[in-house]
Specification:
The protein has 98 residues and is α/β, with parallel strands linked by helices. The protein is built from two helices and seven strands; from the N terminus they run ααβββββββ. It has one domain. The chain has a four-stranded mixed β-sheet with strand order 2-6-5-4, with no helix packed on it. Strands 1-3-7 form a three-stranded parallel β-sheet, with no helix packed on it. 12% of the residues are buried. The N terminus is likely disordered.
Length: 98
């Protein structure tokens, strides 16, 4: 059915739907032992909107490996008021709403 719907949409409408960011609630994310999570870009995901917490720190990581074993050197990070830190691929557009 999705293919039929996509076929029925104009090219402009398809582009708009593809540009919609993935919406994630910070409360629903599962962190590792250090309270960290990594969001990678790919599989058609190039933008994420995070809701449910306030950002307290941001920056770029020089060297770091998460408890889950992910090497996040060069990634951007956001630390939230609940203690969670999210690392993300620099190509991924991330916005935060509370």
């Amino acid at each position: 059915m999705g293919a039929l719907l996509a076929h029925a949409l104009s090219e402009e409408e398809q582009w708009t739907e593809q540009d919609q960011p993935l919406l994630l609630s910070v409360d629903d994310l599962i962190v590792d032992a250090n309270g960290e999570i990594v969001i990678f870009s790919g599989d058609g995901i190039d933008a994420v909107t995070l809701t449910g917490a306030t950002v307290t720190h941001t920056g770029r990581v020089e060297f770091h490996r998460t408890a889950a074993g992910d090497d996040v050197a060069g990634f951007q990070f956001l630390t939230f008021d609940n203690g969670m830190t999210i690392f993300h691929d620099p190509q991924l557009r991330v916005t935060v709403t509370d």
